From TrEMBL:
Name listed for the protein in its UniProt record: ATP synthase subunit O, mitochondrial
A Pfam family reported for this protein in Swiss-Prot or TrEMBL: OSCP
NCBIfam families in the cross-refs: ATP_synt_delta
MF term (GO), any: proton-transporting ATP synthase activity, rotational mechanism
The organism of origin for this protein: Aegilops tauschii subsp. strangulata (Goatgrass)
Length: 199
């Protein structure tokens, strides 16, 4: 039945993704995993995103749905055959071209990377601070997060400098945000002081 196929489909991906881009990313993940080419496909799909960012003309082609479907599919097939891409990536990009979905390739790639990271047991953590975290503090943060998320997880920290938080730090991973910034504390204090006092 359709419901059973749907459940089987999502049992095989490391985490469920929703929406059109999630469905495309999941389908690409399954095809790549079944052919033992996850790393190669991940590299190729990120190369496509990189090419679109470097070339305004290629980026415009990817976003332009007025280009006839046959022209889009032919161009994509030729470009990525010449580049030596795997059949899985070529067929996937051709399907996107055929369905007028090339303009979503960057978001699909992001979600595909989410799946490959989950498959490898990796968790990306974004840490925003005013100054870079010292190596010792970053190591302690990774250990704390590993305790919370599971010893089998590999924590990948991406540090971002953000002067607007005024101090402290903001940690983001998955759908969670831990805001321990001075800016947030100041806003909370201001809200508290604006409340009427009972005397």
């Amino acid at each position: 039945s359709l419901t059973l196929n749907y459940l089987l489909f999502y049992w095989r991906v490391p985490k469920a993704l929703y929406g059109g881009t999630g469905n495309y990313a999941s389908a690409l993940f399954l095809a790549a995993a079944n052919s033992n080419s996850l790393e190669k496909v991940e590299s190729e799909i990120l190369d496509v995103v990189g090419a679109a960012k470097k070339s305004p003309m290629f980026s415009q082609f990817m976003k332009d749905t007025s280009v006839p479907k046959e022209t889009r599919v032919k161009a994509i097939t030729e470009i990525f055959s010449e580049a030596g891409f795997t059949d899985i990536t070529k067929k996937f990009l051709s399907a996107l071209a055929s369905n007028g979905r090339l303009k979503y390739v960057e978001r699909i790639a992001e979600r595909f990377v989410d799946l490959t990271m989950a498959h490898r047991g990796e968790v990306k953590v974004v840490v925003r601070t005013v100054v870079p975290l010292p190596e010792k503090e970053e190591k302690e943060l990774k250990e704390t997060l590993r305790d919370i998320l599971g010893k089998d997880k590999t924590i990948l920290v991406e540090q971002k400098i953000d002067q607007s938080i005024m101090g402290g730090l903001v940690i983001e991973f998955g759908q969670k945000v831990f805001d321990m910034s001075i800016r947030t504390r100041a806003k909370q204090m201001e809200a508290f002081l604006r409340q009427p006092f009972d005397i």
